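Technical annex B. To support the medicinal chemistry partners, we prepared a structural model of the target in complex with glycinamide ribonucleotide, based solely on the information shown next.
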Amino acid sequence: MKNIVILISGGGSNMAAIVQASQREDWAGRFGARVSLVIANKPAAPGLATARAAGIATAVVEHKAFAAAADPRAAFDAELAAVIDREAPALVLLAGFMRILTPGFVERYAGRLINIHPSLLPAFAGLQTHQRALDAGCQFVGATVHRVTPELDHGPILGQVVVPVLPGDTAEGLAQRVLSQEHRLYPRVVAGLLAEMA
Ligand code: GAR
């Protein structure tokens, strides 16, 4: 059985969607993999409790603990990699993991490192995607699952979902509607990748 490691920073709803898909009887054959570890860079990340409630092992690698290192980002990434590598994962999934990763880390997991971003990339990489899309007058927004490259929120696109903007939409309302579609998109793309690796 292949292992999947998921990295989170917050609520972890995308992580939960992937865990649920991996545990569903009718999906089990398609996944052929289990989420063996969820790692957060913040000890208070609410997604940690969600993962534990689903029977998934968790770990915290706190980025703040490396603030005094000569190269804090590299030191954090080295510890993160050490924890990930114990799982020998087929895939490392970023799910609301809000840290910029070093090129060395990205290179280490080349072909196995995947991210979800709440916009139709390459539009609106970075933060405040929904407000920026509303400000630009976009009529459609969405989410993208992509392979991770050293450049933030870039890399070959593996799947997208389109969400129409409705009259009177706020950034918060739009974020919720996009997020509920992310929960369908991410497991579907992961299942496809795992099937290719089988
Ligand atoms: C999701 O909307 C995800 O696409 C986004 O953070 C949210 C995490 O929600 N990720 C990024 O913005 C990455 N650049 P979740 O913790 O409930 O899955």
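Notes passed to the chemistry partners:
Residues 130 and 175 are 6 Å apart (CA to CA).
The chain has a mean pLDDT of 95.
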